[in-house]
Design brief:
327 residues; 20% helix
């Protein structure tokens, strides 16, 4: 319906006198919007300034006319519905913006689990395991440092490719697999290769994590979600026995995680991902090996990934590693 004219008229009754603090002040005016000739509707709206409770019932009476009239507050004309933001898209967008910048990160794992090795000081896989830090340059190359007690190992990761420092040289995943055929000589390097293959810089890992969540929502200054049962099992399979399918094993042979829950939180600052946290809590039963009895563990493990130096991180990717990943 095209609106041809708008007429404003004063309120049918005077406004109440002004009282201290501005209370009791209410102004009314009616806005009548008539259709062009040949159209059949008249739209009349009532505008009110002040408390909604001050409106008089008679103001909302339909104006006596031969043509139908629609009467409602003018606010309805201008208050267009605002679609609720999608939390998942918010976090994905924040992670994507992070991926376009240089940055550094560090991880901290706290564990209160019982029933065996907590793994808190080891990086044994899972989402954001402890003992990992790194820097990412603006081209997406990540220099990652894995810490095992007093020992460290380095890897360079770019997308799905990676190279691990083995002795004084850098070796790709393919070269490490080939070295493994030499027995113990290549065993440690092959293990580091698998670790590097599962490791992703925060910008990429966060986007993957969002896809594993349900009941995702904004909660205060953070975004939170619950991991699916499949994601919980996948995250804990390599850490507590069993091997992921991608490592040539069967993930179904891993621990029983039916009573284990996983939650994830994300924090966004100025539209860019600044921190995220994973927590696993509950009970988990690890499979027995070599005929040993299964063992039930109480799990409460939290890993926090802090992202810093966004847009200002200084990263020097070893030339040899970069060359191997570009070839």
């Amino acid at each position: 319906m095209k609106l041809a004219a708008v007429k404003s008229a004063p309120s049918p009754r005077p406004s109440p006198p002004l009282r201290a603090g501005g209370e009791g002040v209410t102004h009314h005016s009616s806005v009548e919007m008539r259709p062009r000739e040949g159209e059949k509707s008249v739209l009349t709206a009532v505008v009110t300034a002040g408390s909604p409770q001050s409106l008089k019932p008679e103001i909302y009476q339909t104006i006596a006319m031969k043509k139908p009239t629609i009467l409602f507050p003018l606010a309805a004309l201008v208050a267009l519905p605002v679609l609720a933001a999608d939390p998942a898209e918010d976090v994905k967008s924040a992670a994507k913006k992070l991926s376009e910048k240089s940055y550094s990160w560090s991880t901290k794992t706290e564990s209160a689990q019982t029933g065996g090795d907590s793994g808190g000081g080891r990086n044994r896989g899972g989402f954001g395991g402890g003992g990992v830090s790194g820097k990412v340059d603006k081209d997406g190359f990540a220099l990652v440092t894995f810490t095992f007690g007093e020992n460290t190992s380095e890897a360079v990761i770019k997308g799905d490719k990676y190279a691990v420092k083995s002795g004084d040289e850098w070796k790709t995943g393919e070269e490490l697999e080939a070295d493994a055929g030499d027995g113990n000589q290549g065993g440690r390097g092959r293990g580091m290769g698998r670790l590097a293959r599962r490791t992703k810089p925060p910008a990429a890992q966060a986007q993957e994590l969002v896809g594993t969540l349900k009941d995702f929502k904004k909660d205060g200054d953070a975004y939170t979600g619950q991991m699916t049962a499949e994601a919980v099992k996948e995250a804990n399979t390599f850490r507590f026995g069993g091997r992921r399918g991608g490592d040539g094993g069967n993930a179904a042979a891993g621990p029983d995680t039916a009573n284990l829950k996983g939650t994830v939180k994300f924090w966004v600052k100025d539209g860019v991902l600044s921190k995220y946290e994973t927590r696993f809590h509950g009970k988990m039963t690890t499979r027995g090996r070599d005929g040993s009895e299964p063992r039930e563990r109480d799990i409460d493990r939290t890993t926090t990934i802090e992202i810093k130096d966004i847009g200002t991180a200084k990263v020097e990717i070893p030339a040899e590693a970069k060359k191997k990943l570009k070839s």
